[in-house]
Specification:
alpha/beta; 6-stranded mixed β-sheet; disordered C terminus; elongated; 16 helices; 7-stranded mixed β-sheet; about 475 residues
């Protein structure tokens, strides 16, 4: 057990005159009392856990200095934990105590590690995974993944592989797909490699973090292109894009869902526009395939991934295309050569049968029309409740993906602290990405297996946690809330 008191008078002040004169100035103090661990559990995880919870409570309440009356029998232990003795001994007879203080940041590193590992061990299985990836997968998909590995050269594997490829093509209404071992980033590198072979100027659109990443892909492949940047969290300006395309761009590349905000770009309008100007349209559909209807008819190249809306394990990247892909051995690395994959029936190198089995089962068992409707309904209700709780939702002036809900927190709340507190409350949110931290945002993603009965109380839980977390000062230190 461990007791923590933040209200004065402290018991130590009754034993030691002018207590504050012994303590570091400018600190918010709490008193730690009644620390006790049964003898048979000493030296294990119990003390570490108590101190981790002490640190966690201190962050939430704004305490940054703890004081104790430490028994003289355990001074060595207290010093080891970071406590600093001050003043004379208090107490009488055999019950002698040493006043001590500890700066709470002394516990931070060990506490974070303890809470992270203990949460992973015990809480994650029951937590609601609202991350954009990795998403929660069904037990049946996990069992499919756990089958014994199979040679990628076996006839059974080749048959299953072609079946999965056809299922993927049918899913997005496209003629061809090649599947790579890697992430969606790899798929976009493959697209950049194909564009480099055209030798023609193009246009990259950006209205957020992931549009900017496409710009980076294009630069790294030394493509000839212009960039059109639009307001973050807002829609694309189709009239301005059409005017730019009229000046001679051969290809256009953009994201379908700008995942940093949830804004859904109007690819149907882009398909019409590119058909009219005879421009090759390329899309990053990593965050949309499996979450919203995706029709890639008329799209030159598009990227996808296994670990988001398809609700399988991450690790497989897809490039969809309509034309005949030709190998480019003098131009591209083997692992990025779309035509080489096509020439080798999609399996030029070692391929994980485990990842393929999981993806196969995830796609085969999904009623997409029903799933799309469930995401729309759940997202609408969640947004309604968040708005009613006075949270600011990003992208309200544009079309947004129902699978991505982004909240802009006020400056007095720290998104990292809110995200950590929500994790302890049983919700795994996206908040640690650099683009979210910079803008003080948190995200709820409805891409995996998400039970609606666990989501609907989310807004109330978030409201309660935000009301308890102390505001942040200009120096980034926690201070006591006046509420």
């Amino acid at each position: 057990m461990l007791a923590v008191r933040g209200s004065r008078p402290f018991s130590l002040a009754q034993k030691l005159h002018d207590l504050d004169s012994y303590l570091p100035q400018g600190r918010t103090i709490c008193e730690i009392r009644l620390l006790a661990v049964e003898k048979r559990f000493r030296g294990g995880q119990v003390l570490r856990g108590l101190l981790a919870l002490l640190w966690q409570l201190s962050v939430e309440k704004g305490y940054d200095l703890g004081i104790i009356s430490g028994t003289t029998r355990q001074l060595r232990l207290y010093r080891h934990l970071g406590f600093v003795p001050f003043g004379p001994l208090v107490g009488s007879g055999a019950a002698q105590f040493q006043p001590m203080y500890v700066k709470m940041e002394a516990f931070e590193v060990a506490a974070r590690e303890f809470l992270r590992t203990s949460f992973a061990r015990s809480s994650s299985p029951g937590a609601v995974n609202l991350l954009p990836g990795p998403v929660t997968v069904r037990a049946e998909v996990r069992r499919a993944f756990e089958q014994a590995p199979e040679s990628h050269r076996s006839n059974d594997f080749k048959k299953d592989f072609q079946t999965v490829k056809q299922m993927l093509c049918d899913l997005v209404h496209v003629r061809n797909v090649e599947v790579f071992m890697g992430s969606g980033t790899l798929a976009n590198d493959v697209i950049a490699g194909q564009l480099s072979r055209l030798g023609r100027p193009g246009l990259v659109l950006s209205n957020g973090e992931f549009g900017s990443r496409l710009v980076d892909h294009a630069r790294r492949f030394r493509l000839e292109f212009e960039t059109m940047e639009f307001a973050e969290d807002g829609p694309l300006d189709l009239a301005a894009i059409e005017k730019k395309l009229a000046s001679g761009a051969d290809w256009l590349w953009c994201v379908h869902c700008e995942t940093s905000s949830g804004v859904l770009n109007d690819i149907a309008a882009l398909q019409v526009l590119c058909a009219r100007t005879r421009t090759k349209l390329c899309l990053d559909c990593v965050s949309t395939i499996g979450n919203v209807p995706v029709h890639l008819s008329g799209v030159y190249l598009a990227s996808g991934s296994s670990g988001k809306g398809l609700r399988a394990y991450p690790g497989l990247a897809m490039v969809f295309y309509q034309h005949k892909a030709v190998p480019a051995p003098e131009w591209l690395p083997r692992c990025l050569d779309l035509g080489y994959y096509a020439q080798e029936a999609g399996i030029p190198f070692t391929f994980s049968s485990n990842l393929l089995n999981a993806l196969h089962f995830a796609i085969r068992q999904t009623d997409l029309e029903r799933r799309f409707q469930q995401i729309i309904e759940l997202s609408a209700e969640l947004r309604r409740r968040l708005a009613a709780a006075d949270f600011v939702l990003v992208g309200t002036g544009a079309l947004v993906s129902p699978a991505v809900v982004t909240i802009a927190l006020p400056p007095e709340l720290n998104s990292s602290l809110v995200g950590e507190a929500m994790q302890r409350a049983g919700y795994l949110l996206s908040y640690n990405s650099g683009y979210l931290l910079r803008k003080n945002r948190i995200q709820i993603c409805l891409m995996g297996e998400v039970p609606s009965e666990r989501i609907l109380p989310f807004a109330k839980t978030l409201k309660d946690i935000c009301s308890r977390i102390s505001p942040v000062s200009m120096h980034g230190e926690l201070i006591e809330s006046s509420r």
